[in-house]
Design a protein that fits this description.
Elements (H helix, E strand, L loop, with lengths): L7 H7 L3 H12 L15 E3 L5 E3 L4 E3 L14 H13 L6 H8 L3 H14 L12 E9 L22 E8 L4 E5 L5 H11 L5 E5 L13 E5 L14 H18 L7 H12 L8 H10 L8 H5 L1
Length: 307
């Protein structure tokens, strides 16, 4: 096996059927022993057939799927693991049509699988704040006005009209946090910065007026004047966060083609996860294990995702 990666063929050799995939997931999700997803009991567990267990404390029958994104799915677990492998290793993502062909499910099922996997990729609430040198920037996702059918044009100008704004923060040598924002106001930007960045950090932005009021007692702030052709002044630049937008936009345009504002947050989660836990510097199995660790407690129903 390679020191840095594992091939798709090797993955199928490791997880060739449902029992081996189930054992693999149990070993990762229940590292301290079989645990009831309801009461977290570990002592009074009875092993039953077919991967089922019973908690004798709360009288719950459960499997490794219970309380995870896999719950109530009839798709075999080895196909779920392969989908996770494909999503975490594809730099620009994988379409539901392509995934459907590769694992032998319908396109509708593959689309729902991917949405549930993206839900698992969302950052936990307990995650540490960014610190040190942080680059901030925003991008806009959505179709261009000139390419829309005349009945769908907003006729309100060009540029960001009809698009959804995404705010991104990237720590140099560290993690990336990104999410769509409802309104491009100073209050929204300031709240996002205080929620996700440690006080005292150095902020680098462009010269947009939204970032102009970040100077103060809480952060050090420097900007580069893009409108004057200035892209780096000493250490001040936004090149790292702009590289995130480059990959995001290439994925949206080249792989997914169109992303609605309703589901955009999950797609942004996907790209941020690949930059963080899915960093290519880590072995593929480590990246896959980080993905599996994130599936618990994030069940997403079809009714919820299509509401």
């Amino acid at each position: 096996m390679s020191k840095s990666t594992i091939s798709m063929y090797q993955l199928f050799e490791m997880l060739s059927d449902e029992p081996t995939a189930r054992t693999y997931l149990e070993g990762r999700l229940w590292r301290d022993g079989i645990t009831c997803p309801e009461c977290k009991e570990q002592e009074r567990i009875t092993v039953r057939k077919g991967g089922y267990y019973r908690c004798n404390k709360c009288v719950l029958d459960f499997t490794v799927r219970t309380g995870t994104i896999f719950e109530r799915s009839h798709i075999p677990l080895q196909k779920w693991v392969y989908a996770m492998y494909a999503l975490v290793t594809a730099r620009k993502g994988i379409s539901s049509l392509q995934l459907a062909k590769e694992i032998g499910v319908t396109q509708k099922s593959a689309w729902f699988m991917l949405q549930r996997l993206r839900e698992a990729m969302s950052a936990p609430d307990s995650i540490d704040k960014l610190r040190g040198i942080i680059e901030l920037d925003e991008c806009f996702i959505g179709g261009k006005e000139r390419n829309k059918h005349d009945s769908k044009k907003l006729k309100a100008g060009r540029g960001s009209v009809g698009k959804t704004a995404v705010l991104g923060m990237r720590q140099r040598g560290g993690r990336t946090i990104a999410a769509p924002i409802e309104d491009r106001s100073l209050q929204t930007i300031t709240k996002a910065v205080h929620d996700n960045i440690e006080i005292g950090s150095q902020l680098y932005t462009d010269d947009h007026m939204l970032f102009g009021d970040l100077d103060g007692l809480f952060f050090r702030h420097d900007a580069v004047n893009h409108s004057a052709g200035e892209y780096a002044v000493g250490p001040a630049c936004t090149n790292s966060i702009e590289s995130v937008w480059a990959v995001l936009k290439r994925g949206v345009h080249g792989v997914y083609h169109q992303v609605s504002a309703k589901h955009l947050a999950r797609y942004v989660n996907e790209f941020a996860f690949r930059l963080n836990e899915g960093d290519v510097k880590r072995h593929t199995l480590e990246r896959l294990n980080s993905f599996i660790d994130a599936v618990a407690g994030k069940r997403l129903t079809y009714k919820a995702v299509t509401a």
